[in-house]
Amino acid sequence: MFTTYQEALDWIHGRLRLGIKPGLTRMEWMMDKLGSPEKKIKAVHVGGTNGKGSTVTFLRSILQAGGYTVGTFTSPYIEQFNERISVNGKPISDVEILELTNVIKPLADELEDTELGGPTEFEVITAMAFYYFANTSNIDIVIFEVGLGGRFDSTNIIQPLASIITNIGLDHTAILGNTYEEIAFEKAGIIKENTPIFTAVKHPGALKVIEEMAEKRSAPIYRLNQEFQISGHESIAKGEVFALKSKSLSYEELEISMIGQHQTENAALAVLAADYLKQAGFKVTEQSIRKGLIEAYWPGRFEVLSENPLVIIDGAHNQEGITALVHELSSRYKDRNIHIVFAALRDKKLDEMIGMLDGIADQISFVSFDFPRAAKAEELHQISRSTSKQAVDDWQPHLLDKVKNQHKNEMLVVTGSLYFISEAKPFIIKSLKTHNAI
User: Fold this and answer.
1) Hey, do 5-295 and 303-437 end up sharing a CATH topology, with the first three levels equal?
2) pTM of the entire structure?
3) Which fold has domain 5-295?
4) pLDDT of 277-308, one tens digit each?
5) What is the C-alpha separation between 149 and 144, in angstroms, rounded?
Protein backbone atom coordinates (compact mmCIF):
# COMPACT_ATOMS: atom_id res chain seq x y z
CA MET A 1 0.00 0.00 0.00
CA PHE A 2 1.20 3.48 -0.87
CA THR A 3 0.77 6.16 1.77
CA THR A 4 1.61 9.27 -0.27
CA TYR A 5 0.71 10.67 -3.68
CA GLN A 6 4.39 10.88 -4.64
CA GLU A 7 4.95 7.18 -3.87
CA ALA A 8 1.97 6.31 -6.08
CA LEU A 9 3.22 8.55 -8.89
CA ASP A 10 6.74 7.13 -8.71
CA TRP A 11 5.35 3.60 -9.00
CA ILE A 12 3.18 4.53 -12.01
CA HIS A 13 6.03 6.29 -13.82
CA GLY A 14 8.38 3.46 -12.93
CA ARG A 15 6.33 1.25 -15.23
CA LEU A 16 7.63 3.21 -18.22
CA ARG A 17 10.47 0.67 -18.12
CA LEU A 18 8.02 -1.86 -19.58
CA GLY A 19 7.65 0.30 -22.71
CA ILE A 20 4.68 -0.12 -25.04
CA LYS A 21 3.00 -3.54 -25.18
CA PRO A 22 0.07 -3.41 -27.63
CA GLY A 23 -2.76 -5.81 -26.88
CA LEU A 24 -5.94 -6.02 -24.85
CA THR A 25 -5.43 -9.21 -22.83
CA ARG A 26 -3.88 -7.54 -19.76
CA MET A 27 -6.62 -4.89 -19.73
CA GLU A 28 -9.33 -7.52 -20.06
CA TRP A 29 -7.75 -9.50 -17.20
CA MET A 30 -7.71 -6.44 -14.92
CA MET A 31 -11.25 -5.39 -15.89
CA ASP A 32 -12.51 -8.88 -15.08
CA LYS A 33 -10.91 -8.68 -11.63
CA LEU A 34 -12.51 -5.24 -11.08
CA GLY A 35 -16.02 -6.39 -12.02
CA SER A 36 -16.02 -5.03 -15.61
CA PRO A 37 -16.20 -1.27 -14.89
CA GLU A 38 -15.84 -0.51 -18.60
CA LYS A 39 -19.34 -1.92 -19.16
CA LYS A 40 -20.91 0.50 -16.69
CA ILE A 41 -19.85 3.67 -18.51
CA LYS A 42 -21.54 5.69 -21.26
CA ALA A 43 -18.66 6.72 -23.48
CA VAL A 44 -17.40 8.31 -26.68
CA HIS A 45 -14.11 7.04 -28.12
CA VAL A 46 -11.72 9.44 -29.90
CA GLY A 47 -8.80 8.24 -32.04
CA GLY A 48 -6.60 9.69 -34.78
CA THR A 49 -3.07 10.97 -35.25
CA ASN A 50 -3.51 14.64 -34.34
CA GLY A 51 -6.37 16.60 -32.81
CA LYS A 52 -7.62 13.94 -30.39
CA GLY A 53 -7.16 16.07 -27.29
CA SER A 54 -8.73 19.13 -28.90
CA THR A 55 -11.73 17.12 -30.13
CA VAL A 56 -12.20 15.61 -26.66
CA THR A 57 -12.14 19.12 -25.22
CA PHE A 58 -14.64 20.55 -27.71
CA LEU A 59 -17.07 17.69 -27.07
CA ARG A 60 -16.62 17.86 -23.31
CA SER A 61 -17.16 21.61 -23.32
CA ILE A 62 -20.36 21.34 -25.42
CA LEU A 63 -21.85 18.69 -23.12
CA GLN A 64 -20.74 20.57 -20.02
CA ALA A 65 -22.39 23.75 -21.37
CA GLY A 66 -25.57 21.67 -21.59
CA GLY A 67 -25.39 20.90 -17.88
CA TYR A 68 -23.81 17.44 -18.01
CA THR A 69 -20.99 16.12 -15.85
CA VAL A 70 -18.34 14.82 -18.25
CA GLY A 71 -15.33 12.64 -17.51
CA THR A 72 -12.30 12.68 -19.79
CA PHE A 73 -9.31 10.41 -20.15
CA THR A 74 -6.44 11.99 -22.12
CA SER A 75 -2.70 11.69 -22.60
CA PRO A 76 -0.07 12.85 -22.14
CA TYR A 77 -0.55 15.56 -19.54
CA ILE A 78 0.63 19.15 -20.04
CA GLU A 79 0.39 20.84 -16.65
CA GLN A 80 -0.07 18.04 -14.09
CA PHE A 81 -0.32 14.26 -14.15
CA ASN A 82 -3.81 14.20 -12.61
CA GLU A 83 -5.35 15.94 -15.65
CA ARG A 84 -5.26 12.63 -17.50
CA ILE A 85 -8.35 11.68 -15.48
CA SER A 86 -10.59 14.74 -15.24
CA VAL A 87 -14.21 15.68 -14.56
CA ASN A 88 -15.59 18.77 -16.31
CA GLY A 89 -12.04 19.74 -17.18
CA LYS A 90 -10.84 19.57 -13.57
CA PRO A 91 -8.16 16.97 -12.75
CA ILE A 92 -9.01 14.50 -10.00
CA SER A 93 -7.28 15.04 -6.65
CA ASP A 94 -3.97 13.67 -5.37
CA VAL A 95 -5.93 11.68 -2.77
CA GLU A 96 -8.02 10.05 -5.51
CA ILE A 97 -4.88 9.17 -7.52
CA LEU A 98 -3.43 7.57 -4.38
CA GLU A 99 -6.62 5.56 -3.73
CA LEU A 100 -6.82 4.39 -7.35
CA THR A 101 -3.18 3.32 -7.39
CA ASN A 102 -3.75 1.24 -4.27
CA VAL A 103 -6.65 -0.48 -6.05
CA ILE A 104 -4.63 -1.29 -9.18
CA LYS A 105 -1.21 -2.16 -7.72
CA PRO A 106 -2.23 -5.55 -6.25
CA LEU A 107 -3.66 -6.51 -9.66
CA ALA A 108 -0.46 -5.40 -11.38
CA ASP A 109 1.60 -7.50 -8.96
CA GLU A 110 -0.63 -10.52 -9.56
CA LEU A 111 -0.52 -10.03 -13.33
CA GLU A 112 3.27 -9.82 -13.19
CA ASP A 113 3.37 -13.47 -12.10
CA THR A 114 1.30 -14.69 -15.07
CA GLU A 115 2.40 -15.43 -18.63
CA LEU A 116 0.81 -12.11 -19.67
CA GLY A 117 3.40 -10.08 -17.75
CA GLY A 118 2.91 -6.88 -15.80
CA PRO A 119 0.84 -3.98 -17.15
CA THR A 120 2.53 -0.96 -18.70
CA GLU A 121 2.26 2.58 -17.35
CA PHE A 122 -0.52 3.40 -19.82
CA GLU A 123 -2.45 0.22 -18.98
CA VAL A 124 -2.26 1.03 -15.27
CA ILE A 125 -3.56 4.58 -15.80
CA THR A 126 -6.31 3.36 -18.16
CA ALA A 127 -7.44 0.80 -15.59
CA MET A 128 -7.49 3.54 -12.94
CA ALA A 129 -9.68 5.67 -15.22
CA PHE A 130 -12.19 2.91 -15.89
CA TYR A 131 -12.46 2.08 -12.20
CA TYR A 132 -12.82 5.74 -11.23
CA PHE A 133 -15.49 6.64 -13.77
CA ALA A 134 -17.53 3.49 -13.14
CA ASN A 135 -17.57 4.15 -9.40
CA THR A 136 -18.25 7.90 -9.43
CA SER A 137 -22.02 8.11 -9.52
CA ASN A 138 -22.63 11.63 -10.82
CA ILE A 139 -20.76 11.31 -14.14
CA ASP A 140 -23.10 11.34 -17.14
CA ILE A 141 -20.66 10.40 -19.90
CA VAL A 142 -16.92 9.81 -20.39
CA ILE A 143 -14.81 10.73 -23.42
CA PHE A 144 -11.82 8.41 -23.86
CA GLU A 145 -8.84 9.46 -25.95
CA VAL A 146 -6.93 6.63 -27.61
CA GLY A 147 -3.32 6.45 -26.45
CA LEU A 148 -1.66 4.82 -29.46
CA GLY A 149 -3.21 3.40 -32.62
CA GLY A 150 -6.62 2.02 -31.73
CA ARG A 151 -7.06 -1.67 -32.46
CA PHE A 152 -4.77 -2.80 -29.64
CA ASP A 153 -4.95 0.35 -27.51
CA SER A 154 -5.80 -0.15 -23.82
CA THR A 155 -8.92 2.00 -24.16
CA ASN A 156 -10.37 -0.22 -26.90
CA ILE A 157 -12.30 -2.45 -24.50
CA ILE A 158 -15.25 -0.03 -24.35
CA GLN A 159 -18.50 -0.20 -26.26
CA PRO A 160 -19.00 3.51 -26.97
CA LEU A 161 -22.10 5.39 -28.05
CA ALA A 162 -20.04 6.90 -30.87
CA SER A 163 -16.48 6.86 -32.19
CA ILE A 164 -14.39 9.63 -33.76
CA ILE A 165 -11.24 9.39 -35.90
CA THR A 166 -9.78 12.87 -36.34
CA ASN A 167 -7.16 12.34 -39.03
CA ILE A 168 -4.38 9.97 -40.12
CA GLY A 169 -0.68 10.81 -40.30
CA LEU A 170 2.62 8.96 -40.47
CA ASP A 171 3.35 8.80 -36.75
CA HIS A 172 4.54 5.88 -34.58
CA THR A 173 5.38 4.05 -37.80
CA ALA A 174 7.62 1.52 -35.99
CA ILE A 175 4.51 0.23 -34.21
CA LEU A 176 1.55 1.11 -36.43
CA GLY A 177 2.95 0.65 -39.94
CA ASN A 178 4.75 2.67 -42.61
CA THR A 179 1.82 3.68 -44.83
CA TYR A 180 -1.32 5.74 -44.35
CA GLU A 181 -3.37 2.63 -45.08
CA GLU A 182 -1.59 0.49 -42.47
CA ILE A 183 -1.97 3.19 -39.82
CA ALA A 184 -5.63 3.72 -40.80
CA PHE A 185 -6.25 0.02 -40.24
CA GLU A 186 -4.98 0.32 -36.67
CA LYS A 187 -7.00 3.50 -36.03
CA ALA A 188 -10.12 1.92 -37.57
CA GLY A 189 -9.89 -0.78 -34.92
CA ILE A 190 -11.99 1.43 -32.63
CA ILE A 191 -15.01 1.19 -34.96
CA LYS A 192 -17.63 -1.00 -33.27
CA GLU A 193 -20.69 -2.88 -34.56
CA ASN A 194 -23.60 -0.55 -35.41
CA THR A 195 -21.82 2.37 -33.72
CA PRO A 196 -21.46 5.58 -35.75
CA ILE A 197 -18.02 6.79 -36.76
CA PHE A 198 -17.30 10.48 -37.38
CA THR A 199 -14.10 11.27 -39.27
CA ALA A 200 -12.12 14.13 -40.80
CA VAL A 201 -9.61 11.82 -42.52
CA LYS A 202 -8.74 13.21 -45.95
CA HIS A 203 -6.08 10.85 -47.30
CA PRO A 204 -7.94 8.75 -49.91
CA GLY A 205 -6.22 5.46 -49.08
CA ALA A 206 -6.65 5.91 -45.34
CA LEU A 207 -10.29 6.93 -45.74
CA LYS A 208 -10.98 3.86 -47.88
CA VAL A 209 -9.67 1.61 -45.08
CA ILE A 210 -11.97 3.33 -42.56
CA GLU A 211 -14.95 3.09 -44.94
CA GLU A 212 -14.33 -0.63 -45.43
CA MET A 213 -14.16 -1.23 -41.67
CA ALA A 214 -17.33 0.79 -41.13
CA GLU A 215 -19.13 -1.27 -43.76
CA LYS A 216 -17.84 -4.53 -42.29
CA ARG A 217 -19.17 -3.53 -38.86
CA SER A 218 -22.41 -1.96 -40.12
CA ALA A 219 -21.31 1.35 -38.58
CA PRO A 220 -22.92 4.52 -39.99
CA ILE A 221 -20.13 6.80 -41.22
CA TYR A 222 -20.02 10.60 -41.29
CA ARG A 223 -17.16 11.99 -43.40
CA LEU A 224 -15.76 15.50 -43.83
CA ASN A 225 -16.73 16.92 -47.25
CA GLN A 226 -19.31 14.17 -47.74
CA GLU A 227 -21.87 13.79 -44.95
CA PHE A 228 -20.80 17.13 -43.45
CA GLN A 229 -19.14 20.26 -44.81
CA ILE A 230 -17.15 23.14 -43.33
CA SER A 231 -17.31 26.49 -45.10
CA GLY A 232 -16.82 30.21 -44.57
CA HIS A 233 -13.67 29.76 -42.52
CA GLU A 234 -12.05 32.93 -41.24
CA SER A 235 -9.18 33.38 -38.80
CA ILE A 236 -9.83 36.00 -36.13
CA ALA A 237 -7.49 37.53 -33.55
CA LYS A 238 -8.07 34.86 -30.92
CA GLY A 239 -9.53 31.88 -32.76
CA GLU A 240 -11.46 30.82 -35.83
CA VAL A 241 -14.96 31.24 -37.28
CA PHE A 242 -16.65 28.75 -39.61
CA ALA A 243 -19.97 27.38 -40.84
CA LEU A 244 -20.99 23.73 -40.52
CA LYS A 245 -23.64 21.84 -42.43
CA SER A 246 -24.89 18.25 -42.49
CA LYS A 247 -28.18 16.51 -43.18
CA SER A 248 -29.37 17.10 -39.60
CA LEU A 249 -27.86 20.51 -38.77
CA SER A 250 -26.76 23.85 -40.19
CA TYR A 251 -24.82 26.45 -38.22
CA GLU A 252 -23.40 29.77 -39.41
CA GLU A 253 -20.55 31.62 -37.71
CA LEU A 254 -19.52 29.05 -35.14
CA GLU A 255 -16.62 30.50 -33.17
CA ILE A 256 -13.78 28.69 -31.43
CA SER A 257 -11.01 30.10 -29.25
CA MET A 258 -8.40 27.54 -30.29
CA ILE A 259 -6.13 28.81 -33.05
CA GLY A 260 -5.63 27.00 -36.36
CA GLN A 261 -7.76 26.09 -39.35
CA HIS A 262 -7.34 22.40 -38.44
CA GLN A 263 -9.19 23.12 -35.19
CA THR A 264 -12.37 23.83 -37.18
CA GLU A 265 -12.33 20.18 -38.25
CA ASN A 266 -11.89 18.97 -34.68
CA ALA A 267 -14.71 21.27 -33.55
CA ALA A 268 -16.97 20.04 -36.35
CA LEU A 269 -16.43 16.41 -35.33
CA ALA A 270 -17.34 17.32 -31.74
CA VAL A 271 -20.51 19.14 -32.85
CA LEU A 272 -21.65 16.19 -34.99
CA ALA A 273 -20.95 13.68 -32.21
CA ALA A 274 -22.79 15.87 -29.68
CA ASP A 275 -25.74 16.18 -32.04
CA TYR A 276 -25.81 12.40 -32.47
CA LEU A 277 -25.89 11.91 -28.69
CA LYS A 278 -29.43 13.30 -28.73
CA GLN A 279 -30.40 9.80 -29.86
CA ALA A 280 -29.00 8.47 -26.58
CA GLY A 281 -31.13 10.91 -24.59
CA PHE A 282 -28.67 13.79 -24.22
CA LYS A 283 -30.13 17.26 -24.65
CA VAL A 284 -27.87 19.23 -26.95
CA THR A 285 -28.96 22.72 -28.00
CA GLU A 286 -27.54 25.32 -30.36
CA GLN A 287 -26.81 27.46 -27.31
CA SER A 288 -24.75 24.72 -25.62
CA ILE A 289 -22.89 24.06 -28.90
CA ARG A 290 -21.96 27.72 -29.40
CA LYS A 291 -21.09 28.26 -25.73
CA GLY A 292 -19.11 25.01 -25.52
CA LEU A 293 -17.05 25.72 -28.63
CA ILE A 294 -16.02 29.22 -27.62
CA GLU A 295 -15.16 28.17 -24.04
CA ALA A 296 -13.17 25.07 -25.02
CA TYR A 297 -9.52 25.37 -24.00
CA TRP A 298 -6.78 22.78 -24.44
CA PRO A 299 -3.30 23.63 -23.11
CA GLY A 300 -0.23 23.47 -25.29
CA ARG A 301 -1.97 23.76 -28.66
CA PHE A 302 -0.85 27.00 -30.32
CA GLU A 303 -1.24 28.60 -26.93
CA VAL A 304 -0.24 32.25 -26.56
CA LEU A 305 1.43 32.46 -23.14
CA SER A 306 2.27 36.15 -23.46
CA GLU A 307 1.53 38.96 -25.91
CA ASN A 308 4.45 41.13 -24.79
CA PRO A 309 6.91 39.52 -25.16
CA LEU A 310 5.11 37.31 -27.71
CA VAL A 311 5.58 33.69 -26.57
CA ILE A 312 3.70 30.74 -28.06
CA ILE A 313 3.90 27.06 -27.19
CA ASP A 314 2.60 24.34 -29.46
CA GLY A 315 2.82 20.58 -29.02
CA ALA A 316 3.61 19.94 -32.69
CA HIS A 317 5.14 16.51 -32.19
CA ASN A 318 4.86 15.01 -35.70
CA GLN A 319 4.74 16.05 -39.38
CA GLU A 320 1.05 16.94 -39.35
CA GLY A 321 1.46 19.06 -36.23
CA ILE A 322 4.47 20.89 -37.67
CA THR A 323 2.61 21.49 -40.96
CA ALA A 324 -0.29 23.11 -39.06
CA LEU A 325 2.11 25.18 -36.92
CA VAL A 326 4.05 26.46 -39.94
CA HIS A 327 0.79 27.36 -41.70
CA GLU A 328 -0.42 29.44 -38.74
CA LEU A 329 2.92 31.17 -38.23
CA SER A 330 3.23 32.10 -41.91
CA SER A 331 -0.36 33.42 -42.11
CA ARG A 332 -0.57 35.19 -38.74
CA TYR A 333 2.95 36.45 -38.05
CA LYS A 334 4.51 37.42 -41.39
CA ASP A 335 5.96 40.60 -39.90
CA ARG A 336 7.71 38.91 -36.94
CA ASN A 337 11.22 37.61 -36.54
CA ILE A 338 10.52 34.01 -35.45
CA HIS A 339 12.80 32.20 -33.00
CA ILE A 340 11.87 28.52 -32.60
CA VAL A 341 12.97 26.30 -29.73
CA PHE A 342 12.47 22.64 -30.66
CA ALA A 343 12.77 19.33 -28.80
CA ALA A 344 11.63 15.95 -30.09
CA LEU A 345 11.56 12.23 -29.54
CA ARG A 346 14.08 10.21 -31.52
CA ASP A 347 11.48 7.96 -33.16
CA LYS A 348 9.80 10.76 -35.18
CA LYS A 349 10.39 11.70 -38.83
CA LEU A 350 12.83 14.37 -37.74
CA ASP A 351 14.31 15.29 -41.13
CA GLU A 352 10.96 16.36 -42.56
CA MET A 353 9.82 18.09 -39.36
CA ILE A 354 13.05 20.04 -39.00
CA GLY A 355 13.06 20.88 -42.72
CA MET A 356 9.68 22.59 -42.35
CA LEU A 357 10.81 24.50 -39.26
CA ASP A 358 14.02 25.59 -41.00
CA GLY A 359 11.83 27.15 -43.69
CA ILE A 360 9.85 29.37 -41.29
CA ALA A 361 12.38 30.16 -38.52
CA ASP A 362 14.69 33.17 -38.57
CA GLN A 363 16.56 31.44 -35.75
CA ILE A 364 16.18 27.90 -34.42
CA SER A 365 17.47 26.33 -31.21
CA PHE A 366 17.50 22.57 -30.69
CA VAL A 367 17.37 21.46 -27.07
CA SER A 368 17.79 18.24 -25.10
CA PHE A 369 15.37 17.22 -22.35
CA ASP A 370 15.15 14.38 -19.88
CA PHE A 371 12.98 11.61 -21.36
CA PRO A 372 13.94 8.02 -22.33
CA ARG A 373 13.19 8.43 -26.07
CA ALA A 374 14.28 12.08 -26.40
CA ALA A 375 16.68 13.07 -29.17
CA LYS A 376 19.79 14.98 -28.10
CA ALA A 377 20.15 18.61 -29.13
CA GLU A 378 23.23 17.81 -31.21
CA GLU A 379 21.38 15.09 -33.16
CA LEU A 380 18.64 17.56 -34.12
CA HIS A 381 21.20 20.27 -34.88
CA GLN A 382 22.99 18.01 -37.38
CA ILE A 383 19.77 17.35 -39.30
CA SER A 384 18.97 21.06 -39.68
CA ARG A 385 20.04 23.01 -42.77
CA SER A 386 19.37 26.39 -41.16
CA THR A 387 22.11 29.00 -41.35
CA SER A 388 21.07 30.38 -37.95
CA LYS A 389 20.89 27.42 -35.58
CA GLN A 390 22.30 26.26 -32.26
CA ALA A 391 22.29 23.17 -30.06
CA VAL A 392 21.54 23.71 -26.37
CA ASP A 393 21.81 20.99 -23.73
CA ASP A 394 20.42 23.03 -20.83
CA TRP A 395 17.12 24.43 -22.12
CA GLN A 396 16.02 26.31 -19.00
CA PRO A 397 18.60 29.16 -18.96
CA HIS A 398 18.28 29.35 -22.75
CA LEU A 399 14.50 29.91 -22.56
CA LEU A 400 14.93 32.37 -19.70
CA ASP A 401 17.40 34.37 -21.79
CA LYS A 402 15.05 34.39 -24.79
CA VAL A 403 12.09 35.59 -22.71
CA LYS A 404 14.13 38.35 -21.02
CA ASN A 405 15.88 39.68 -24.11
CA GLN A 406 13.22 39.47 -26.80
CA HIS A 407 12.89 42.54 -29.03
CA LYS A 408 9.60 44.11 -30.12
CA ASN A 409 9.47 42.59 -33.62
CA GLU A 410 10.47 39.10 -32.39
CA MET A 411 8.47 36.12 -31.19
CA LEU A 412 9.43 32.94 -29.35
CA VAL A 413 7.83 29.66 -30.41
CA VAL A 414 8.49 26.64 -28.19
CA THR A 415 7.43 23.43 -29.89
CA GLY A 416 7.95 19.71 -30.36
CA SER A 417 7.32 16.79 -28.04
CA LEU A 418 4.34 17.10 -25.71
CA TYR A 419 6.55 15.64 -22.97
CA PHE A 420 8.90 18.60 -23.44
CA ILE A 421 6.00 21.07 -23.60
CA SER A 422 4.71 19.76 -20.25
CA GLU A 423 8.06 20.70 -18.66
CA ALA A 424 8.60 23.94 -20.57
CA LYS A 425 5.18 25.54 -20.07
CA PRO A 426 5.27 26.00 -16.25
CA PHE A 427 8.90 27.14 -16.49
CA ILE A 428 8.06 29.77 -19.13
CA ILE A 429 5.04 31.01 -17.16
CA LYS A 430 7.20 31.44 -14.05
CA SER A 431 9.88 33.20 -16.12
CA LEU A 432 7.30 35.55 -17.65
CA LYS A 433 5.94 36.46 -14.21
CA THR A 434 9.43 37.16 -12.92
CA HIS A 435 10.38 39.12 -16.03
CA ASN A 436 7.23 41.25 -16.02
CA ALA A 437 7.65 41.99 -12.32
CA ILE A 438 11.10 43.50 -12.87
Assistant:
1) no
2) 0.92
3) UDP-N-acetylmuramoyl-L-alanine:D-glutamate ligase (3.40.1190)
4) 999 999 999 999 999 999 999 888 999 999 99
5) 13
